[in-house]
Write a structure and sequence with these properties.
- This protein is an alpha+beta fold and about 150 residues long.
- The protein has helices at about 5-20, 30-40, 40-55, 70-75, 95-100, 125-135, and strands at about 25, 60, 65, 80-90, 105-110, 115-120, 140-145.
- The strands form two sheets. A four-stranded antiparallel sheet has the order 5-6-4-7, with helices on one face.
- A hairpin with a 2-residue loop joins strand 2 (about 60) and strand 3 (about 65).
- Helix 2 (about 30-40) packs across helix 3 (about 40-55).
- The radius of gyration is 20 Å and the shape is globular.
- The two termini are about 30 Å apart.
């Protein structure tokens, strides 16, 4: 990996410090592949992409399309997720983690500390995910937290 210059590092740090944390979903696909998946011409796809970009639902660049927070909201996906902290029986961790992978969740992490795992879910899916977690043998405790707003 090529080392960054002092100016590049300064720029990257400025972008990070002045930037806003957002939830984006990035798709790296050629437009002809995407138009084929959707069953539309490339020209029709471009019309739709342009409209979504103008409305602020997506960002596009060479070789990628990002769905923005505004786009996620219009899809009914929250940019302020819920978090579930899990305490798991040490002898059942592998089985529990395998079952967690099957759930409708955004992300799941093994973590160190007083709890064993952290699950991110859409707020709308929290109740459904909790019901499924309660049926998994080996989960000793759950704690749920719902985010209110993004601070930074």
């Amino acid at each position: 990996m090529e080392p960054l210059t002092k100016r590049s590092m300064q720029l990257l740090k400025t972008l990070y410090e002045n930037g806003k944390s957002t939830s984006t979903y990035t798709l790296r696909v050629k437009q002809d592949e995407l138009s084929s998946q959707l069953g539309v011409s490339r020209q029709a796809l471009n019309v739709h992409l342009r409209k979504l970009k103008i409305l602020g639902y997506i960002r596009t660049g060479r070789g990628f399309i990002d769905v923005t927070d505004k786009g996620l909201t219009v899809l009914g996906i929250s940019s302020t997720p819920a978090f579930i902290l899990l305490k798991v029986s040490p002898v059942k961790r592998i089985k529990v983690y395998e079952q967690i992978q099957q759930l409708t969740i955004s992300r799941a992490f093994r973590i160190a500390g007083n709890v064993d795992a952290l699950i991110m879910v859409e707020r709308e899916n929290l109740d459904e995910v909790l019901k499924k977690l309660y049926s998994i043998d080996g989960i000793e405790d759950t704690r749920s937290y719902v985010t209110i707003d993004v601070i930074k």
